[in-house]
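Subject: design request, 83 residues
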C-alpha cells in the first residue's frame, strides 16, 4: 500500500513538472552521482529522482532519470535538472 501511494505521488509530481516545462523554454543540465545501494528493478529511477529532488530542490525539476549499477552495492544516478 505504501509503495503504491509513493508511486502515485511521484507520478503526479512528474506530471506537474512536465506541464511546467511545456509552458516555457528551460535549459536542462545533466547531473550524475554515485550512491550506495543497488538499483531496484522497479523504482530505481524513482530513487534517483527523489535523491536529486531532495538535493537540488523542487525548482530543479529533475527529469529523464536513470539508474545503473556501478560496482558492488552502488548505483550511478543520472537526471537532467534545470540549470
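Subject: RE: design request

Done. Sequence follows.
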Amino acid at each position: 500500500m505504501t509503495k503504491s501511494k509513493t508511486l502515485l505521488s511521484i507520478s503526479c509530481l512528474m506530471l506537474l513538472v512536465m506541464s511546467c516545462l511545456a509552458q516555457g523554454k528551460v535549459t536542462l543540465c545533466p547531473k550524475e552521482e554515485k550512491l550506495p545501494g543497488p538499483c531496484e528493478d522497479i523504482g530505481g529511477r524513482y530513487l534517483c529522482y527523489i535523491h536529486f529532488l531532495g538535493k537540488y530542490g523542487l525548482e530543479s525539476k529533475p527529469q529523464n532519470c536513470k539508474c545503473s549499477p556501478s560496482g558492488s552495492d552502488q548505483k550511478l544516478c543520472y537526471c537532467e535538472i534545470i540549470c
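The radius of gyration is 13 Å.
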